[in-house]
């Protein structure tokens, strides 16, 4: 077994943390930090957000269940994994099961956590928990909230990986899940 990575840089101390704006999805904080070895201070801005989840949902045929939806940030339609926010009092796994069912109508009892990723640690406070859901079957109608307009796409995994490779799938958190999935597949072949 390889030795764990040893970080050499110390953490910075928070001198001041002030909430400057609040939304239903995130809060914007202005932070003043004590950076070891630095004499210049300036404000840092952090989006405090709840934990998120993403699901690689595989059917019994090993096809992957995807969601197609418009994303206002990039002003285009994207192809993504089912995912969303972890609600208060909910575990990441509970959120993954709920989001998969709501967004796609698919469900399963076979779940595996394959990792977590920080979406952008420079400005976001949260992590995205990544899951594989095996043997997913359509068990209910879609039950999206008022702001979601989602088309469900079920395609072979190899086609999905080609779409990730050629840039059709470009959502960073989705690509992080793909990387964890491929690393998991590689590890399982090595043992």
UniProtKB/TrEMBL annotation:
One of its GO terms (molecular function) is pyrophosphatase activity. PROSITE patterns: NUDIX, NUDIX_BOX. Keywords: Hydrolase. GO terms for cellular component: cytosol. InterPro entries: Nudix_hydrolase, NUDIX_hydrolase-like_dom_sf, NUDIX_hydrolase_CS, NUDIX_hydrolase_dom. It holds the Pfam family NUDIX. This is GDP-mannose pyrophosphatase. It catalyses: GDP-alpha-D-mannose + H2O = alpha-D-mannose 1-phosphate + GMP + 2 H(+). GO terms for biological process: nucleoside phosphate metabolic process; ribose phosphate metabolic process. Residues 39-177 form the Nudix hydrolase domain. It comes from the Bacteria. Its cofactor is Mg(2+). Belongs to the Nudix hydrolase family. NudK subfamily.
């Amino acid at each position: 077994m390889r030795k764990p990575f040893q970080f050499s840089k110390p953490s910075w101390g928070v001198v001041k943390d002030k909430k400057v704006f609040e939304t239903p999805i995130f809060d914007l904080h202005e932070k003043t930090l004590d950076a070891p070895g630095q004499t210049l201070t300036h404000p840092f801005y952090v989006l405090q957000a709840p934990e998120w989840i993403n699901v690689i949902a595989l059917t019994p045929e090993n096809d992957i269940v995807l969601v197609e939806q418009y994303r206002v940030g990039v002003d285009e339609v994207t192809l993504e994994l089912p995912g969303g926010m972890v609600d208060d009092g909910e575990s990441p796994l509970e959120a993954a099961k709920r989001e998969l069912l709501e967004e796609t109508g698919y469900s399963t009892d076979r779940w595996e956590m394959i990792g977590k990723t920080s979406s952008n640690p420079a400005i976001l406070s949260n992590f995205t928990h990544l899951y594989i859901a095996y043997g997913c079957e359509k068990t209910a109608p879609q039950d999206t909230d008022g702001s979601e307009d989602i088309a469900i796409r079920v395609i072979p995994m190899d086609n999905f990986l080609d779409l990730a490779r050629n840039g059709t799938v470009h959502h960073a958190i989705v690509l992080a899940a793909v990387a964890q999935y491929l690393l998991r597949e590689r590890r399982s072949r090595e043992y």
